[in-house]
Amino acid sequence: xxxxxxxxxxxxxxxxxxxxxxxxxxxxxxxxxxxxxxxxxxxxxxxxxxxxxxxxxxxxxxxxxxxxxxxxxxxxxxxxxxxxxxxxxxxxxxxxxxxxxxxxxxxxxxxxxxxxxxxxxxxxxxxxxxxxxxxxxxxxxxxxxxxxxxxxxxxxxxxxxxxxxxxxxxxxxxxxxxxxxxxxxxxxxxxxxxxxxxxxxxxxxxxxxxxxxxxxxxxxxxxxxxxxxxxxxxxxxxxxxxxxxxxxxxxxxxxxxxxxxxxxxxxxxxxxxxxxxxxxxxxxxxxxxxxxxxxxxxxxxxxxxxxxxxxxxxxxxxxxxxxxxxxxxxxxxxxxxxxxxxxxxxxxxxxxxxxxxxxxxxxxxxxxxxxxxxxxxxxxxxxxxxxxxxxxxxxxxxxxxxxxx
Length: 405
What we know:
By secondary structure, this protein is of the alpha+beta class. It has 2 domains: 3-283, 4-Layer Sandwich (Phosphatase 2c, domain 1); 333-400, no CATH class. 36% of the residues lie in helices and 28% in strands. The chain has 11 helices and 19 strands. Strands 2, 3, 4, 5, 6, 10, 11 and 14 form an 8-stranded antiparallel sheet that branches. Strands 1-13-12-7-8 form a 5-stranded antiparallel sheet. Strands 18-17-16-19 form a 4-stranded antiparallel sheet. The longest helix has 43 residues, at 287-329. It is elongated, with a radius of gyration of 36 Å.
């Protein structure tokens, strides 16, 4: 290999789940995460079986194509094994798992992905998500039905479109081969991390100078700090110059459900708890997918109509409130000056953004300058009147204050 690898992996059951349905593996050339679905009915069994069988493919390959073909073959075999396990244990119906992994062949990284676990690459200070989630909400985003922000809180965000396991369709994996180089940092994780820890925090840790072990520990800690309602599994792989390979101690490591032998206990399998309701698989070609798409479209349309209606109601209330306020001002009067004469105004003298709330009601023949200085000041400041009759009374008092020589 033209590069050497330093890795770390860990898994945590989280603060809500009663069992760990995640599995992870950090080996010599293969690294992956598998996130089981089916709750107490078999999520941990599906991920453990998958992890233990896929880890057997951790070997040297002549080419990236050879590695990809071997991984695909073993995935199909594993899928068949899970199907047979469900046939023998009907209580495990619906169990399945995601799989997101890497196999390094010289300076190539072979990526295999199915489900909503993720692979990230941090290179030259930039972090990007390499894989695309096989979820219902991701399809809605791609179709332009919802935004990425809406996908984060969508009620169907836990619906998977592709998994390995008890389905009527063969698993459809995404394969990609990327060139890797010293200094790259790869991360695989279950959605227990990226579902609750922001991309900014993920990038901050992946791009830091921390070692792989510390990055794994800190990221899982971030998930726990966020409440960790789901299992969280993280595998980090650092690529370093090949000459360092001779001094790096390597040991394959399983984490999560894959750390123990798979024992199917009927009593346990029949015990369905809250975990079993969180994740669901539907086929893109099935009736359920079209039904949910139509339901979502109706909800989106209803939400848009509701937003339009809400804006219309708010606008109407603002206009009505403004009109009522303006109508109220037109019941008021005040006395002021206009072109040097004492005049009566209807409304109030205050203005708002250049809009006047008063108009000239009547201009008298009384000159402002004919008034005593004190009354001139009052007129200049305007004199409030309770109504039109009160305004006339004010005019009469001002006239009376004028000294006729």
